[in-house]
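Field reference: sequence -> structure
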Amino acid sequence: MNLKTGQTNRNSSVCERCGRRTAIGILVLFALICFGITGLATEISSPIGRWQNADATFQIFESNGRLSAKIVALKEPRTREGKEKTDIHNPDPAKRSVPIIGLVFMSGFAKKSETRWEGGTIYDPKSGNIYSCFMELEGPDKIKVRGFIGLAFLGRTEYWSRAKE
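Structure field:
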């Protein structure tokens, strides 16, 4: 409105409407972003389920408040001789006839944050060695698994993909 003439300036009312629309648009966009981030955090907050790498499929599950994992499928489940693969490298000779499929090879993981679990161990059936380990979700379908000796920087990292159920 022009103070001298008392007339409304058409351009200023258009600008006011544009400003209100822009403000409403920004608020809606902000709400959608906040909802999206909250939805994503909820979606990726649990590693429980089936995961896979190039060699096998694993089932991560909760037991006594901690996470563990077992091997549920192998890309090559049989030896060259056609026999079921067993834990032949286990340091305990009594366990060398245990099938690899069904083997609980990770255990003891406690939740450290929304995306990280620590304090666990991972058993490598290819060598018979046990390592300290942590897991970290890097998205709803990607998990980082780091096995190490002593300090976390002395180890190996694998990335697993969530298996299609």
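Note: Residues 25-42 have pLDDT under 50 and may be disordered.
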